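Look at a sample.

——
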Amino acid sequence: MTTKKTTDSSRDRIVDAALELFAENGYDRTPISAIAKRADVAQGLLYRYYSGKEALLREIIQTRFADMQHTVDIDPYAELPEKLEVYLTNVVKSIKENTRFWSLFYGMRGQPILEQVLGQEYKEIQNQIITSLATFFDPRGAHSDHTEAIVLFSIVDGICMNYIVSNTDDYPIEEIIECIISKYR
């Protein structure tokens, strides 16, 4: 059991160090040696768990996206405003609790490395979230509701990106979210 705890602890430290350094310095400007040093592990141990920076980045992103998919796990019988309130509250909570990750993600968007690391996976996850959002509007997910879900997803994505880019507590994210919810009451 101690070995499993040590392994998990080492892996967690490596992932945390990678996320910190990628967010601080950028993916391209972060060498594996710096990640190992920040995680306080030997470089060989890092390579035992991960084949390189791409594998680390993939794990960081996949973990956060898996967390984001839970933002749409909402009571299907709730009314639309309640569904939106729960979803948007979950999104805001994720953004605030994982600012480093979202800063890294939004900073990397549009860069070839993101496509290289994730391939179609990001689009698939995005489509799963949009499909879930469509059921908010109509449990059958009719085409017009799918379009409405894309609009909602895009609005929320833009709000989150602006929150991260503003890098300030003054960004009125809660007021903006309340404004969105009020439009569906």
